[in-house]
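Notes from hallway chat w/ T.B., transcribed later so I don't forget. T.B. wanted the structure written out for a chain they're using in a teaching module, and asked if we could keep both sequence and C-alpha cells in one place. Agreed to drop them here.
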Amino acid sequence: MTEEFRIAILGAGNIGTSIAKGLVQSGHFSPGRITLTRRRVHLLEDFKAQGFDVSNDNIAAVNASDVVIVSVEPQLVDGVLEQIAPALDFDRHILISVVTGISLHQIEAKLGKPMRIARAMPNTAIAVRESMTCIASNGPDDKALEMAKLLFNDVGKTLRIREEDMLAATALGACGIAYFLRAIRAASQGGIEVGLSAKNSLAMAVQTAKGAACLLSVGGTHPESEIDKVTTPNGCTISGLNCMEHEGFSSAMIRGITVSAEKAARLYRKE
C-alpha cells in the first residue's frame, strides 16, 4: 500500500527531515516518493543528493502528493495552510499536522473547507524508527487516522489519544526526549566524576538507559517494581536514589513537563 502514494513534508526542519529519514529506513518508501519543502531550499542539498525531491514550492509539492504532512513552526502554520488550501482535494489528499498547538478545528477553519485531517506528535527518535507518536483525527471517517497509524507505526510506536490530551503528549513525548537525553548526559558526567573515561561513561549510560526502558517495554512492569529489585537495604543504590530525590530529581522532571505543556499551549496564536 505504501508504494501507491506520494508524501509531501512541508517544512523540512529537524522533525520534518527526521520523519523522512525514518520512512526511508523502514524500507517501505524510496526517497523519490517523498517531497521535502523549505523556504531556504539550499539547506536540503544533502537530501536532494540522497534522491529526495526538494522544493520551496508548497503548492507544487501538494499537487504531486497524496499525503501532506505539515511540519512548520506554529507561527508560520496559518500562512502555509492558507497557501495550500486551494490545492487540497478532499477525495485525494490526507493532511497530517505535526505542528504544536493548533487544533483540528482550527486547521479546518483556516483551510476554509472540510478535509480528512490527523494530528500527530512524534519526536526526533523517528529518524531511527523509535519515535513515540501520539495521534488524533477528525471525521468523517477513519481514513486520516489509519494513514497516520500506517506511517508512524513504520517509524516507532503510535498511541491514539483524545485531541485535548495532545498538549500533554507534546510535553512528555516530543519535548520529553530531550529530558531523557539530559538525564543520560548527567549520568555520564557522574561516571566521569567517579573516574571513568568520557567515552566509556557515555557508553555505559546509554546502554543502561536502554536496558531500563526495555525492562519496562518488554516486561510490562512498573518502574518501582524494577527499582525494588536493585535497592537492597543499606545498599549503595538506595543511598544514591535518596540523595537524588533529596536534590529534587523527580520534582524537577515533573515540573519541567508541566512548564513545557504550559508553553506549548501558547505557541500557536490564531489571528
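Follow-up for T.B.: The chain has twelve helices and eight strands. Might be a good example for the class.
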